[in-house]
Amino acid sequence: MKKKLLAGLSIGLFVIGIAGVVMATPFLQTTDLISESERTHFNDFNALPWNSTSYTQDTIQVEQINGLNNVSPVLSGWYPNGGDWGYTQMTFNDLSDFQNIGFDFSSGNFRHDYIWYDLLDNNISVLTGSVLTAGLSYLSFWGGGFDTILIRDGRSLNTLSVYDGTHNALSLGNIETSGTTPVPEPTTMLLLGLGLVGLAGVARRKHKK
After folding, report:
1. Which CATH class is domain 28-178?
2. Please, which of 98, 112, 143, 149 could form a disulfide with 90 given CB 3.0 to 4.6 Å?
3. Is the pLDDT of residue 7 over 60?
4. Strand 54-57's sheet: what is its strand order?
5. Ramachandran assignment for 178, one of left (phi > 0), alpha (psi -120 to 50 degrees), beta (any other)
């Protein structure tokens, strides 16, 4: 009876520890929930040069990927000249994780009524989808667990994903972040460790028998 109780307790501690270590799933927001006082980083493209495909300000790096055209400081900040056939990538320049990030957007093509996005963590997709942009001018992603945002706009009729190579005319401005990447608390790591030790002890006793 005591052995079963020990095994059950060890498994419980291990599960609780794992739950505390696992990162939260990111989610989409369409309203600005980051106040100026809560900002940790801010990129307003105020020094964006002409004919650029990459720009970094306050550690937020923006790049145009697979596009044939350079980016110019027009519209609300970041815009591919005449549009292109790639997508925009947002990261921290040290590749650390985002916690919360939001940005203003518009489009250089009035027929582009959707935005497609793919959030990655260590090159693995953790959130992908699209959003109808009617009435919207701001998007944000919350909850952490991602280090890269790939994003573009397109028409609902012929654009299927971030990667399909159709016309992209997304303009970005005023990118802001808040929060820091969560670090497992010492108590969480302790519970995980106790669970592992307990499970190892149970396994050792079974092996001796």
Report:
1. mainly beta
2. 149
3. no
4. 54-57, 60-65, 87-92, 148-154, 114-121, 124-132
5. beta
